[in-house]
Specification:
Layout (H helix, E strand, L loop, with lengths): L2 H35 L2 E13 L7 H6 L2 E11 L4 E15 L6 H6 L2 E15 L12 E14 L2 E4 L2 E4 L22 E14 L4 E12 L14 H8 L1 H7 L2 H5 L20 E14 L1 H5 L9
Antiparallel strand pairs: 1-2, 1-10, 2-3, 3-4, 4-5, 5-8, 6-7, 8-9, 9-10
Amino acid sequence: MNEHHLKKLHFIPFKKWILRHIFLYGLLNLFFFTINAQTLELGILTGGANYQGDLASSEFKVITKQIKIAIGGFLRYSINESFALKLQVVKTEVVGDDANSSYDFLAQRNLRFFSPLLDASLRFEWSPFVANSQYQQVILPYVSFGGSFFTFNPQAEYLGQIHELRPLNTEGQGLATFPNRKPYSLYSGSILAGIGVKFLLNEDLTLGFDISANYTFTDYLDDVSDTYAGYDELAATYGVLSADISYQVDDFFDLNQTTPLPNTRRGNPNLNDLFFIAGITLSYNLVNPERASGRGMGCPTF
């Protein structure tokens, strides 16, 4: 091997070393530029949640009766002045009760449920306006869209006791009569869309209001979806409790137990369940380039 080849072999590792360090240097500069150029907010949400499904009509009195407290927290990362990415976790409860409805056919069905719900969502927020204290632009409306993953566990009170509904297979899940009905999962996802408004108190604090609608991938948030299973078949396979909780029309009319007619509708399998989360938010900028550079917005004036 001659001297020319030796020099070439020495040059190749050196060239790779230079390229690798240039690449790492670029990544570090990009990282610090991103951190210094954007904001990262830590916030809390407190408000309410509501459910729409087979055990909820659109009546205003039903909606107001079935609102439950929701609390949560979020991280919002501003990609630029118009777009932000938000990770949010909310803990709440969803409820439904036929007794709240003024429609006779719903009241007579006589079903009810409640379920804890823990929802983790990732969403994009878009604001058409840019914050500018000089022009009094400190109120920023926005729209959001994204998805979420949540857990639930429908339960109901029957004869003074609380029962988890999924293990009871109240719609005949697993029966040979309904080969397409399988036990449903207590984990699901949703597609969400929402609107909100942010009020910039100063360069660090933001007050806001946010509401989002979550269209879920399950129709069993309330344990109700399709037609009734036969009372006798349910009782023989899963026990009398399963059959009694499934069919409560007789309890409404104070009658001896009768079995539902075949294919009598219990719920609507063509529409999945929804839930809504709305609340007041308060967030603090953990990373704020305006504060770091000494160019704060200051308090807004009117």
